[in-house]
Amino acid sequence: MTRLASTLLLGSLLLLPSTASAQSPVSSNSTPSTYPMFSPRGFVLFSRQQFQAEKTFEAIFDDASGSFRGFGADLVLARNVFVEIGWSRFEKTGERVFLFNNTVNKLGIPLTITLRPFEFSGGYRVTVWPRVIPYGGIGVASVRYEETSDFAATGDDVSVSGSGVVFLGGAEVRLARFIGVSADIHHSSLGDMIGKGGISKEYGEDNLGGTAVRFRIIIGR
């Protein structure tokens, strides 16, 4: 019996290494995925902006806010730093007006205002959480502003360009490996673009910037 027990014990000890090896996890499955050093992405954007020239836009459109739509691309560097370019467009039709005795009088003549901003910005992303990524940045904007009307006299239509600064801050939510959405507060200052004539001169407003809530659908990591 003693010799049989010794033989069984020795056999059990010899089997232990092979059993442990069979139960150990595969090393390739335990290796975490790495984020690329350079990650280019594309996006479409939608925003709603409250204009700084509040009285001017309120007089023309009965609304001091407007919607922008556009698209762009960004490049994420080492997961935290980003640079972004974006194009957007605002277009809305109201009426030509004039101010008399502090009262806005509408002329019944359609007036279409178009804004085409091009922006370049950069900033930093806080990657503490895997799916929610706060970020903030600063940049510059170049804007084309146009006023057109079907019954405009010579000199009534306006087409000017200007530039300014933008600030943004918000958070991105990752929905899948290559799909994300973001929401941010976007503030722009675009001074000395209007205010040289018409209702904007009467109100002393020259800044076409404003504060917007901006949403993006992002394709890429």
Low-confidence stretches: 1-32
Distance between the termini: 67 Å
Mean pLDDT: 87
The number of domains = 1
Notes on the protein architecture:
With 221 residues, this protein is an alpha+beta fold. The chain is built from four helices and eight strands, in the order ααβαββββββαβ. The protein has helices spanning 2-23, 27-30, 54-61, 198-203, and strands spanning 38-51, 65-77, 81-100, 103-125, 132-148, 158-176, 179-189, 210-219. Strand 4 and strand 5 form a beta hairpin. The longest helix is centred in the N-terminal third of the chain and has 22 residues, at 2-23. The model is unreliable at 1-32 (pLDDT under 50).
Essential attributes:
single chain; 221 residues; eight-stranded antiparallel beta barrel; disordered N terminus; alpha+beta; elongated; Porin
Per-chain topology:
Elements: H1 2-23, H2 27-30, E1 38-51, H3 54-61, E2 65-77, E3 81-100, E4 103-125, E5 132-148, E6 158-176, E7 179-189, H4 198-203, E8 210-219
In brief:
The protein is α+β, with helices and mostly antiparallel strands and 221 residues long.
